[in-house]
Known about the structure:
YerB-like fold, 11-stranded mixed sheet, 367 residues, globular, mainly beta
Amino acid sequence: MSSRHTLLVTSVIVLSLALAACSGAGTSLLSRPTSPATSTTLPPATTTIVVVTSTTTSPPTTTTTETPVVPVAQFTGEERTQPITRPAFLVKIDNHQRARPQWGINQADVVFEELVEANMTRFAAIFHSRNVTDIGPVRSARTGDFELLSNLNTPLFGNSGGNPTVMRLLDEVDMVLVGDTNVGRAAYRRTDEKDAPHNLLTGTGEIYASADGRGGTPPQMFSYRSQGDPLPPSAQPIVGVDIDYGGYQVTYRWDDVLQGWARTQEDTDHVDHDGVQIAPENVIVQFVKYGQSVAYAGSPEVKIVGRGEAWVLTKGHLIAATWNRPTSTDIAEFRDVDGATVQLTPGRTWIALPRSETALVVETSEE
């Protein structure tokens, strides 16, 4: 008897990790001078699975060889040895001039900057992939924070109290409150380096201990490029962007040495408490609308559910995009002019939330 052998290579499947992010409406694209730049990319995890099936006339045998999926951090796209299953910790951080320089801000995976007064901003920072000893100064919650929390699968939320209406409405949000008014000295402390209210600190160790196992594993927020992947054809090299929040003038400039977007505020380099320049690998300028908070008429409330325009800054380039977040529980999608999901450089991302026509692109140097 002769036997017949058939070798069937069923498939090579390349899996890569996915998308998402945040929300509101508007835009503006102007041009002004400064200084050029280039960069390199860090790779997100990709996995190749090869399945080989061998079939013969006598009982068939199947051999499967799989390369394990490499887990990545949900908010940075950086490779990990183990998946991160703990909840995200989102905390309000002061941006008043007496609060700067802030503690721990460079270790946050994602930082949102939102208007909290007519011309003053505050940060909402997500800590997840790193353990950080000192974070702050921690400040109060606003109604605009609710939509920052609602798509993170029951995150932990840190704050230093808030208006009574804000605190009552916060009970309806899917989150675990670990603020100073309910966990107190177990997780918060004041430093003599600054005056109250700009001196309240916390840390991830105390926060996760106070949560006592509560909270859910967050979804992945963004998509990331693999090593060697090109930017989309629509990506344009730029020097940076300027953002006018009213009382605060903020700039981001590509820094080839830091491989990030160096931030200034009021013409001063923005550094953390350790004196390290803030220069995230990615900056998203997400143009949004603001309404009036039901808790306090003088407090703007950011609108990040809906759709609008965005500028995605990565690897020394700007990618014009649209953002779309249909519901509170959705992660925002960012798509370029060709409809493709925008992919970031693995690393930290700062998301600016200005109104329309309050930002401009700096394309050339002043020389």
